[in-house]
C-alpha cells in the first residue's frame, strides 16, 4: 500500500506544480477559452490543464518502474506501452481541439484510434464477468474494447461543465476503483500485491487531486479535451484489465463479491456521466439535432438553473458519485442485508437535498 500511496503523492505534486505553468502557456499560446452560450462561468478561462495531468501520470508511471514492488505490473511491457502511446495521441488530439475546436467526427476518429492503440497493446475485453462469458473472436474483442474506451471518454466529457466537476468525480471514482483493485490483488496473490489497474487508478487519483485546487470554483484553468480523454481512457483501461485479473482466479471468486462486480463498478463510477450522455443523445435527437451538438441541458446545468450555486451543484454531484461508487465497493466488505437499507436511506436523503429547490417552488404555488 505504501508504494501506491507514494504514486498518488508523486502524481499529485507533479499535477499541482505543472498546472500553473500550463495555464501560463495556454494564455500565451492560445489565449483564454471564449465564452459559449452553454457555459456557466462569466469570464474567459485558459485551457491546457489536462496537459499537466497527463504529464503527472506519465511521470508517475516512469517512477513506478523503479519500484520492485510493482514488477508484476510491468512483467508484460505491452499494456504499459499502449497507455503511454494512447496518452501521446490524446495530447495531440486534445490540444488540437482546444486550439481549433475540431469537428465532432474528427475527434471521434481520434478517439477510435486511441481505442485501437489500447486493443493493439493487448488490453482487450476477453471475458464478460456476467455469467463469465468468454469473448473468443479477436475482432469482437477489439470492437468491444474500442467501444468501451470511446464511450467512457465521451461520458466524462459530458460532465465537464462546472468548475472542478470532472476532476472531482474522477478522483472519487478512481479512489473507489483503486480500493477494489488493491483488495483484488491481495486476494489473487498473497505475496504479490502489484496490480496494473490499481497502479493506473492511483496515478489518476493523484493527478486529479493535484489539478483540482486550480480548477475548483472559481477556476483558474480548465483541463480541456486532453484531460477529459485521459480520464476516460484510464478508467476504461483499468476496467478492461481487471476482468483479466478476475479470470485468473479460475473457479475461485473474490470473497463476498458477485462475479459481475468488474462490470458493475466501472459503470457505477461513471454512472452519472453515462446517464447524462444518454439523456443528451435522446434530447438532441428528438429535437432533430446531432447528438454531438452542445446545449445547456446537462445535469449540472439543470442544478444551476434550478437555483444552486456552482459549488453547491458540484458538491451534490460529488455526493451522488461517492454514494454510487463507494456503495458498490462496500458490497465487498459489508453484509448486503445491512448495506442495502443504509444505502437506500442515504440515497433518499441525497434525492431530497437535490430536489429541494423544486420542492420549495411547488410548496410556494
How do the strands of the widest beta sheet line up side by side?
1-2
Please indicate the percent range of residues in DSSP E strands (runs of 2 or more). Answer: under 5%
Share of residues in helices:
over 70%
Low-confidence stretches: 250-260
Computed Rg = 20 Å
Number of strands: 2
Continuous helix count = 13
Q: Report the end-to-end length measured between terminal Cα atoms.
A: 55 Å
Order of helices and strands: HHHHEEHHHHHHHHH
**What overall form do the CA principal axes indicate?**
globular
The overall pLDDT average reads 82
Derived structural class: mainly alpha
The description of the largest β-sheet is:
2 strands, antiparallel
Please provide a written account of the structure.
By secondary structure, the protein is an all-alpha fold. 70% of the residues lie in helices and 1% in strands. The protein is built from 13 helices and two strands. It has helices at residues 2-29, 49-64, 77-100, 104-120, 138-158, 165-188, 196-215, 224-247, 261-269, 271-286, 299-306, 310-330, 336-364; strands at residues 127-128, 133-134. The protein has a two-stranded antiparallel sheet with strand order 1-2. The chain starts with a helix and ends with a helix. Mean pLDDT is 82; it is low at 250-260.
Amino acid at each position: 500500500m505504501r508504494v501506491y500511496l507514494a504514486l498518488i503523492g508523486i502524481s499529485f505534486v507533479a499535477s499541482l506544480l505543472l498546472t500553473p505553468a500550463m495555464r501560463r502557456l495556454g494564455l500565451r499560446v492560445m489565449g483564454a477559452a471564449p465564452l459559449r452560450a452553454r457555459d456557466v462561468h462569466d469570464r474567459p478561462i485558459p485551457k491546457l490543464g489536462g496537459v499537466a495531468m497527463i504529464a503527472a501520470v506519465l511521470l508517475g508511471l516512469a517512477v513506478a518502474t523503479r519500484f520492485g514492488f510493482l514488477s508484476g505490473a510491468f512483467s508484460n511491457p505491452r499494456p504499459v506501452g499502449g497507455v503511454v502511446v494512447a496518452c501521446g495521441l490524446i495530447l495531440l488530439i486534445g490540444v488540437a481541439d482546444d486550439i481549433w475546436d475540431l469537428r465532432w467526427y474528427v475527434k471521434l476518429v481520434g478517439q477510435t484510434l486511441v481505442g485501437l492503440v489500447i486493443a493493439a497493446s493487448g488490453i482487450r475485453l476477453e471475458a464478460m464477468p456476467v455469467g463469465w462469458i468468454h469473448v473468443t473472436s479477436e475482432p469482437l474483442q477489439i470492437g468491444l474494447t474500442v467501444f468501451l474506451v470511446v464511450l467512457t471518454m465521451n461520458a466524462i466529457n459530458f460532465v465537464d461543465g462546472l468548475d472542478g466537476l470532472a476532476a472531482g468525480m474522477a478522483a472519487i471514482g478512481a479512489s473507489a476503483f483503486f480500493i477494489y483493485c488493491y483488495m483484488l490483488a491481495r486476494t489473487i496473490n498473497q505475496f504479490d500485491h502489484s496490480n496494473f489497474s490499481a497502479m493506473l487508478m492511483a496515478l489518476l487519483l493523484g493527478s486529479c487531486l493535484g489539478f483540482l485546487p486550480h480548477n475548483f470554483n472559481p477556476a483558474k484553468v480548465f483541463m480541456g479535451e486532453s484531460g477529459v480523454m485521459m480520464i476516460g481512457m484510464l478508467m476504461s483501461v483499468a476496467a478492461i484489465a481487471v476482468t483479466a485479473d478476475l479470470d485468473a482466479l479460475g473457479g475461485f471468486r473474490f470473497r463476498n463479491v458477485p462475479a459481475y462486480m468488474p462490470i458493475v463498478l466501472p459503470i457505477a463510477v461513471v454512472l452519472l456521466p453515462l446517464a447524462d450522455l444518454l439523456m443528451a443523445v435522446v434530447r438532441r435527437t428528438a429535437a432533430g439535432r446531432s447528438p454531438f451538438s452542445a446545449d445547456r441541458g446537462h445535469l449540472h446545468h439543470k442544478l444551476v438553473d434550478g437555483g444552486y450555486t456552482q459549488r453547491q451543484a458540484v458538491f451534490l454531484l460529488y455526493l451522488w458519485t461517492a454514494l454510487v461508487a463507494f456503495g458498490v465497493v462496500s458490497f465487498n466488505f459489508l453484509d448486503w442485508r445491512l448495506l442495502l437499507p443504509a444505502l437506500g436511506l442515504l440515497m433518499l436523503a441525497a434525492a431530497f437535498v437535490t430536489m429541494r429547490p423544486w420542492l420549495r417552488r411547488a410548496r410556494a404555488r
